[in-house]
Specification:
8 helices; alpha+beta; 320 residues; 28% helix
């Protein structure tokens, strides 16, 4: 089966085409949007030439699983999310005509003003946080304990936001105190941080019960306008939720401080690119790199990790 790397819905208005998602507006439904997860794949903020078949469907199913779980968990049920329905039959007729293309990879959502921030929560030190810590002794400018090893747990988890860059640019890590400066209302900073930490802690506890460590994740939030001008907009969870694209999952049984952990994500792809696969790295290994064609073996190895994570988290086999 070929990967769906770009949707084609000519009677709908394409609002945005992101790294993975195509977002559409439907005529006559200004208060909602159609989110479609394609099979596109990116690494180091660079989109690849080809995708991973069914990846978009798996990400959608996993996001929906966590949206439902978090909406009912006692610790997070007060946090609204943007989901209206994932059932094509419950979406506008204009969407239903593209059922063959959209089935299983689409969510009809409440339209929100997306905030320009990636709400990252880190439970363990790894990735860019580990790189910064080795150089500066800090994480996002935050002073953290000395003597940490790679993969050491943060107790409590650390809220480490970044800016949300335009497509083709790179997100910039910021100190939490700078969050107020980039939000439309500085008063949103504290509830956004509180929401992100609650969502992470709840999902991390659940994941650990399934044998997985949720090392870190990113959330996105938006503002839902009120129909009453005297009532402020509602802060809610948007975009994807706790997928291997937005999160690092590790096998709990192999974790130890000092271990360089291999997760259930795009690690195979990242390592192949870092080794110069497809000629990647000629321009410094950042957003200025050219897209490359991923070979079949790397596609299959990466897909295998996505499937394994899905099955461990949900307790069921993935069915496209």
């Amino acid at each position: 089966m070929a990967a769906l790397t770009q949707t084609d819905c000519p009677t709908l208005k394409l609002v945005a085409r992101g790294k993975v998602r195509d977002i559409y507006e439907v005529p006559g439904h200004a208060d909602a949007l159609l989110f479609v997860a394609t099979d596109r794949v990116s690494a180091f903020d660079v989109g690849m030439q080809n995708g991973i078949p069914n990846k978009g469907k798996l990400l959608t199913q996993l996001s929906l699983f966590f949206f439902d779980f978090l909406a009912s968990a006692p610790e997070t049920k007060h946090i609204p999310n943007h989901v209206i329905t994932s059932n094509i039959a419950e979406m506008p007729q204009e969407v239903q005509q593209y059922k063959n293309q959209l089935e299983g990879r689409s969510i009809w959502v409440r339209r929100a003003q997306v905030l320009p921030v990636e709400a990252i929560v880190r439970g363990y030190i790894t990735g860019s946080a580990w790189v910064e810590y080795q150089k500066e002794g800090t994480v996002h400018g935050i002073t953290v304990p000395t003597g940490m090893k790679e993969s050491t747990q943060f107790i409590p988890p650390l809220f480490t936001p970044s800016t949300k860059a335009e497509i083709g640019d790179k997100d910039e890590n910021i100190h939490p105190d700078s969050l107020r400066d980039i939000l439309p209302d500085p008063a949103l900073a504290e509830p956004l941080k509180s929401y992100a930490l609650s969502l992470y802690s709840t999902a991390a506890a659940y994941s650990l019960s399934k044998g997985l460590i949720l090392a870190d994740t990113k959330f996105e939030f938006g503002l839902l306008p009120s129909k009453d001008p005297s009532i402020p907009p509602t802060l809610m969870l948007v975009d994807e939720c706790l997928t291997p694209d937005s999160s690092r999952y590790w096998p709990a049984q192999t974790w130890a401080e000092g271990n360089k952990m291999v997760g259930f994500d795009k690690q195979y792809l990242r390592e192949w690119l870092k080794s110069g696969g497809g000629g990647f790295g000629k321009k410094g290994g950042g957003v200025e790199e050219d897209a490359v064609l991923i070979p079949d073996d790397i596609v299959q190895q990466t897909w295998g990790k996505y499937q394994e994570a899905f099955e461990l988290i949900t307790g069921r086999k993935f069915v496209p």
